[in-house]
Amino acid sequence: MAAPAAPRPRRSLIEASLYAVTALILFFLVAPIFVVFPLSLSSGELLVLPTPGYSLRWYEEFFTSNRWLLATWNSFVVGLATMIVATLLGTLAAFGLYLGQFRGKALIIAILSLPMVTPIIVTAIAMYFALSLVGLGSTLTGLIIAHTVLSVPFVLLTVLASLQTFDPNLLRAAASLGASPPVAFRRVVLPLIAPGVATGALFAFATSFDELVVALFIASPGQFTLPRQMFAGVREFLSPTIAAAAVLLIVFSALLLAINEMIRKRAQARGISSGPTP
Amino acid sequence: MSSRLASRRNVMAAALIAPLFLLVALSFLAPLATTLYRAIEDSDFSLALPKTSRSLQQWDGVALPPEEAFRSFVEELRQAQQDQAAGAILNRLNFEETGLRTLLLQATRASGRLAEPYRDSMIALNPRWGDPALWRLFKRATGPFTSLFLLRSLDLKPTDQGVAKAAAQDAVFLPLFWRTFEISLVVTILCALLAYPVAYTLSILPQGWANVGMMLVLIPFWTSILVRTTAWFIILQREGPINALLMAMTLVDQPLTMIFTRFAVYIAMVHVLLPFAILPLYSVMKGLKPDYMRAAASLGAPGWKRFLRIYLPLTMPGVAAGSLMVFMLSVGFYITPALVGGPGDQMVSSFIAFFTNVSVNWGMAAALATLLMAMTGVLVVVARLVVPGFRSGGVKA
Amino acid sequence: MSDAIIRFEGVTKSYDGVTQVVKALDFSVLRGEFVTLLGPSGSGKTTTLMMLAGFEDPSSGAIMFDGRLLNHVPAHQRGIGVVFQNYALFPHMTVGANLAFPLEMQGVARAEREARVRAALDMVKLGALADRRPSQLSGGQQQRVALARALVFRPKLVLMDEPLGALDKQLREHMQLEIKHIHETLGVTVVYVTHDQGEALTMSDRIAVFHNGRIQQLASPGEIYERPANAFVASFIGENNRLDGTIESMADGVARVRLADGSIVAATPGPGVGSGARVTLALRPEKVRIGPDAGGENRFEARIEELIYYGDHTRLRLALGGGEDFTARLTFKDALARPERGDVIPVSWRGVDCLALAPEEA
Ligand SMILES: Nc1ncnc2c1ncn2[C@@H]1O[C@H](COP(=O)(O)OP(=O)(O)OP(=O)(O)O)[C@@H](O)[C@H]1O
Ligand SMILES: [Mg+2]
To answer: Which residue, among A14, A26, A264, would best test binding to B if mutated, counting the most B CBs under 10 Å from its CB?
Structure first.
């Protein structure tokens, strides 16, 4: 008869190797992101490690270069405009889909989220042709329209997800207490789906802020966004300014992530859904 | 439907959905439709050479076209050259048969000297003008529709006798689609293999550690794809930290070439897409009740059998959902191969960009886009059929 | 009739255009009345209430409220209070804010709003909890808040759809009395939905018994219990023995009914039955007398099939009149010592206690 304790060491061996593998993979995921940190502080001209010394010259370069400043400005303008339009339209449409009692809702949702599953390059050239046709090629407006279309599915889906946990009796209760539909939406629905709306808005902003492919086709140098400017940098003149820009982008993304986690935690504490996890 | 209340609700619902629907219809669906339409539309020839087009369309296509066709051809070609409108048609025809640009340019330059009967003087200029097959090619180019671009995307070409294989030097697209598929598949498999242990470990760790691990997945997830690709660009370059390390350890005596290789494409794409595989898998594993495994244990299944027979099948939907997402995104990848791959590692997207921007052959760009869309569409449909509860949502691309 | 606050006139409702879940509803509710809609699941009670509240509209017919046609008035302009089964308290607002909400909608000034909210909370004995959120309250407390919220804006009519359904038995009985008191104090009209007959009997001025989308009977609790209009009402309210038969003859308000096994029973005819009609006899178990010298013109010998001990009484299942489900109660008063299964015992009942009613529709 085998000793009952026999499987124990083997088990912990498996567990140990599992932890080791996981740690390695997580290292693989985050380490490359942190490689750019020392590079951005390099005192040398080249993007090589180890750096000859440390300085803030590339951040100075970033913050005094007209190109980078313009790109930063453009990124925020486009990102914020995209966020506002996508959140507004996406939230209203999601509520409409929640209210409506008709067939084909799934089809409408599928159509509205088509931009999410269409290969980005296809969307980009379609936008490029269409926007040039109506005279919006090489304009920030064109870029905002394109980014809104790309990011609106995220708003729609997160808001729909948080509406799924919304009790329709609350709408009836509001009506029985004298609230007209718009008032009921503002006073009862919106506060309860706010975490979902906020997550969607954040995602819309992040989508626009990170977007490059459409910008490659639509933006001329005057409309370059941060990713577009960085791409130009990698392609043309590799300098540690790119690393500095990358660090700023990473810090900003981490900030967005932190805000999102905060929204999620607070919503959880209040027992309200904020939509799908990421 | 009979109910007024219900219809009032629906009117309200429609009014709320309408703005977004209009936006998506006008600035996405319509552009997409017209773009895909370019894949079969063929109007360069008939726009530049309207009279020639008309007489070619009436021609029976057997012997040479009538003198009238030759005359309008010479006149309209000369006119187009003066209006600087000949470029489009030269591109269009030369794309269908390499060498036609030279032939047409020769005719254009000589058009002042050509005299009646044009048919004879053109044949005298170049005997190719006496070949009815050439004129049949022109006749096919008079539009309004063509199968040329779609066939070319499949390494085929239209001929007098129907569809034939494209010339060897033009037959680049099937290998391109195959390469796109191969890269996507390898990336998907790698992601699934790496995601599984990570998601599992995160799902069994105590909450505190699991949160830390989750952050390590979410930070790259929220970091721009370009930033991550750039990081790999820096890491893998000849003077990069990996080579520096290998040299310092004297494992190699000269830097390895890693940048601009398939290896670089794989590693960067896996890095970019891995979170998409981990997140759905993690939520499936987290939602799995331990009762199943306990039940299996109580029924006498040893550890590895419990894993194979119970845990793996129950978590398969998570693997499938993540893999589909990864594959779908991979198929359309553009930036990463463009930055860290070599010429032989470019995917369909890069050719679409090339035809749009560089060679300005929008028909071809549209045809490749159509096929790429079809490939993705088939995938989504298969995904919906195969994976229960698969929603193509909740992730950023 | 002149003081009817609600009138349903030929109201029907169909959700799918095929099945009518409410059929030709005609009834009135008087001002200040407490009317309960009682019936089995799916009988159309909620649907009727929803039409009144404005959350569904009738497929045909008219609903009058206070002399006004209500059909196309949107829910938020009806001024009807509603208490929902799951309370539907706004989770993001405090109790006080929940109560202030309808007053805000009416444009009541802040000072008065606060006074009225406080008064309403005091009425349901929750004065101290105004700053809590609904999720921080017990089920019973939430129920009271829901009640206070439906009343605070002084609607003329309050609808309640199984408001006590989620509470345990003890709390439910307590709340029944409390709601009854509030109704009496405020004089508000209440339409109440339940499928608990005990609740309906204790609380209501009148009960409307629903079945298959129709009102089977609308009458006071006593009348419903004592004089059910048909076999459905008889069997739905309280316990009843049912015996099927045909009326042989009628004389002096007494019907002679022949049962399946040929025996004849004297019974009191219900509304709308005549000579030759197929009827269902309804006889409450407590009206069945047991023993040789018990009075009553209907006398039978019955075999005991089963005895079930209930503490204060023992229930007998008897074979009688061709069936085997005849129930009688044996109390300590009955002069029958220790009956056993298989015994044949004499039973009897009075013709006035036994109703001959129109049978249930198939
Ligand atoms: N929104 C709806 N769509 C379609 N059918 C419905 C809808 N609401 C109710 N029904 C149907 O109408 C019938 C009556 O339902 P109703 O809710 O009025 O019953 P009820 O008497 O309140 O029952 P319960 O005691 O179970 O609450 C049922 O058969 C139900 O299935
Ligand atoms: Mg109901």
So the answer is: A26
Which residues, other chains included, contact A25 with Cβ-Cβ below 8 Å and sequence gap of 6+? B194, B197, B198, B274
Asked whether the beta carbons of A161 and A272 are under 8 A apart, the reply is no
Rounded CA separation C190/C32 (Å) = 7
Compute the half-sphere exposure of residue B164: CA atoms within 13 Å on the CB side of its CA. Answer: 10
Q: How far apart are CA B134 and CA B155, in angstroms?
A: 21
Residue C270 Cβ contacting ligand 1 at under 6 Å? no
Q: Which two tokens stand for residue B257?
A: 């070439």
10 Å CB burial of residue A5 (0-12, 13-18, 19+) is: exposed
> Which residues of A, range 183-212, sit inside 8 Å of C by Cβ?
183-184, 187-188, 191-192
Contacts with B, C 64-103, CB within 8 Å = 72
Question: What share of chain B in percent tops pLDDT 70?
Answer: 96
Closest partner residue to A96 among B14, B34, B38, by Cβ? Answer: B14
Q: How is chain B split into domains, by residue range?
A: 44-139, 173-391
| Tens digit of each residue's pLDDT (9 = 90 or more) over A27-79 | 999 999 888 888 888 888 877 777 778 888 889 989 999 999 999 999 999 99
Neighbours of chain A (3+ CB pairs under 8 A): B, C
The verdict on a CB contact (< 8 Å) between A253 and B376 is no
Using alpha carbons, select from C244, C326, C324, C323 the residue that is nearest to residue C285.
C326
A122 within domain boundaries: yes
Asked if the structure places residue A227 within a domain, the reply is yes
CA distance B168 to B162: 18
CATH code of residue A227: 1.10.3720.10
Residue B29's H or E segment, with its range, is none
Cα A143 from Cα C311, distance rounded (Å): 82
Report the CATH number of the B173-391 domain: 1.10.3720.10
Tally of domains within chain A: 1
Residues within 8 A of B (CB atoms), A 157-176 only: 157-158, 161
- Predicted local confidence at residue B317, as pLDDT: 85
Residues B34, A216: C-beta atoms closer than 8 Å: no
Looking at the complex, report in whole angstroms how far the Cα of residue B15 sits from the nearest Cα belonging to chain C: 18
pLDDT for C337: 66
Query: Rounded to a whole number, what is the distance in Å from the CA of B11 to chain C's nearest CA?
Result: 14
H or E element that contains A190: helix A190-210
Q: Which domains does chain C show, CATH number per domain?
A: 4-79+156-226 (3.40.50.300), 90-143 (no CATH), 231-357 (2.40.50.140)
Domain range for A225: 79-237+248-270
The CA C83 to ligand 2 mean position distance, Å, reads 13
What lies within 8 Å, CB to CB, of C86 at 6+ separation is A167, A169, C166
Ligand 1: which atom is nearest the Cα of residue C16? 4
- pTM for the full predicted model: 0.85
Q: Is C46 in the pocket of ligand 1 (CB under 6 A)?
A: yes
